Amino acid sequence: MSLTPMALRSVLRTPTGLRPLLLQAPRALYHSYEHAQPPPYREAESAILSSAFTYVPTHGFTQEALTLGAKDAGYLDISTNLFPKGAFELVKYHLTTQRLGLKDRIQFPDGQMGVGRKVRSLVLERLRANADTGVINRWQEALALMSLAENIPASLRELSALSDEIWFLSGDISVDTSWYTKRASLSAIYAATEVYQTTDKSTDFKDTEQFLDRRLEELRVMGGAVGNTLEWVGFQGGALVNLLRSKGVRI
Amino acid sequence: MASAVPRAAKRLRLTNTPGYVCTDCRRAFAASTQPRLQQQPPPQPPPSQHVGQTAKTTHFGFETVAEELKASKVRTVFSSVASSYDTMNDLMSLGIHRLWKDHFVRSLNPGIRPTPPPPRPPPPPPQSQRILDIAGGTGDIAFRLLDHATTTNRDPHTSVLISDINPQMLAEGRKRCLSTPYHATNRVSFLEANAEDLSAIESSSIDLYTVAFGIRNFTHKATALREAYRVLKPGGVFACLEFTPNLANPVLNALYKRWSFGAIPLIGQLVAGDRESYQYLVESIEKFPSQREFAAMVRETGFLVPGDAEGGGWEDLSMGIAAVHKGVKPV
Ligand SMILES: C[S@@+](CC[C@H](N)C(=O)[O-])C[C@H]1O[C@@H](n2cnc3c(N)ncnc32)[C@H](O)[C@@H]1O
């Protein structure tokens, strides 16, 4: 397989010491079509989590919602011991089910749209799921839970998986060395846009859409340069933390 | 200051008491003390004693004994020491077992929060849980469970049945109960029973089954697990806090083995004048299944094991000196 000019450029811009890493990077693509994945939850877990999720709009991402869900599913208060991570399990449930459900929420007419447009639609569609499930007003609680040290690895894993899923569904199945860059950039853009969404008061999340467009434009202008992108991701991470702090989330 | 006097007196008395030893603490003690005593090389488990494992024999530490004998031998280990039990716990663990027990109880979160009354009467009947604390000894876990339910979840109804094979331990628990806020309520009761036969308890009647530092003394662990499964309601939780036979880190493990086999029986001899009981307790830990094996036993009994998907299914405490196992009975 040959490198695209863009990918080649990004390899050449990488410090020499890191280049072999990029070139050998296995494409550990992981998405819902390629592998027959085991169902993410056992029956009892799905039953409890799906009922508990209906309490999130009113009770938030809390142990209380989990308990109410357990009782609705025919379990007991104490049965929430099935979920060692407590309320964070509800956050993970939303992330997982919405990632896996994304492919059914959106269909692209053949050959009409470029990869870039599709990525944009997919991100918007995924964000729309936050509103459709009624948890957008509670999503800052979820972000706070995700930012707890013990939950960060699982949260980042989910974010990467979502990014992979979006690239895959957008039809970008090219195997090249810019894959890690793409994953990192899209993850960063998605995370920043989602934080923005939690503060968006405009109708139909028009402001969020514009925010996303600005981020995608920045990415286009900067190309796939690894160095720049990582710097940019770092910057976005900082911006995200600041935004959350300004919203009174303690991180 | 004033309270130090009776405590000191108690400790003095303790040094003359032959017999008891709490297992829980030996390891914590070993792990947290600087080497001061002469170390002895860990004795190898004598393999020749495992010959002819017919259905009729079992382990008593490394000894192989007739099954009927084990329960009574275990009883002797835990007898006559009942009155010094809690002091001994503190002495031996330097308090660490308390932290484990606190964590164990907090993570279980017993008790039912009152729900705000609906706009229209009748108000819902107060909800409560029925907890069974097996091998409950003097109630160290049981009173913590009640405290958590009462203070954290504002649940004044949840009750605990403390069960133990050893009547002396239960008598001590009764005495202790008098000094708790629960003595004049019907929230604490006692039952003398072998954990392998809970026929005194109805099937599907318990919300939470706890066993802390007890299960490794049971002759038939799988039988005890089946009884736990039977008495629990669908959705009920089995929870076990127990020492582990090996630490994950091989270097620490080797050090630890020297301590537990070398120093601890010696401490037992010095402090309680009873080397053999201590020796038994150390060996019973060694004989207990590994975390992975025990999690498999819980699963085979029919329980849903939390965290199974992440490849674990238990929680290690203090570098894996002890571990918590849980199981939920499916609905
Ligand atoms: C180390 S103590 C633990 C006491 C208490 N759970 C705690 O954590 O402080 C172990 C207890 O297990 C009890 N025990 C031993 N074998 C038993 C059996 N087969 N059935 C019920 N209890 C048993 C002993 O009598 C003793 O009280």
UniProtKB/TrEMBL annotation, chain A:
<dbReference type="GO" id="GO:0006744">
    <property type="term" value="P:ubiquinone biosynthetic process"/>
</dbReference>
<keyword id="KW-0446">Lipid-binding</keyword>
<keyword id="KW-0831">Ubiquinone biosynthesis</keyword>
<protein>
    <recommendedName>
        <fullName>Ubiquinone biosynthesis protein</fullName>
    </recommendedName>
</protein>
<comment type="pathway">
    <text>Cofactor biosynthesis; ubiquinone biosynthesis.</text>
</comment>
<dbReference type="InterPro" id="IPR012762">
    <property type="entry name" value="Ubiq_biosynth_COQ9"/>
</dbReference>
<feature type="domain" description="COQ9 C-terminal">
    <location>
        <begin position="152"/>
        <end position="221"/>
    </location>
</feature>
<dbReference type="InterPro" id="IPR013718">
    <property type="entry name" value="COQ9_C"/>
</dbReference>
<dbReference type="GO" id="GO:0008289">
    <property type="term" value="F:lipid binding"/>
</dbReference>
<keyword id="KW-0496">Mitochondrion</keyword>
<dbReference type="Pfam" id="PF08511">
    <property type="entry name" value="COQ9"/>
</dbReference>
<comment type="function">
    <text>Membrane-associated protein that warps the membrane surface to access and bind aromatic isoprenes with high specificity, including ubiquinone (CoQ) isoprene intermediates and presents them directly to Coq7, therefore facilitating the Coq7-mediated hydroxylase step. Participates in the biosynthesis of coenzyme Q, also named ubiquinone, an essential lipid-soluble electron transporter for aerobic cellular respiration.</text>
</comment>
<dbReference type="GO" id="GO:0005743">
    <property type="term" value="C:mitochondrial inner membrane"/>
</dbReference>
<comment type="similarity">
    <text>Belongs to the COQ9 family.</text>
</comment>
<keyword id="KW-0809">Transit peptide</keyword>
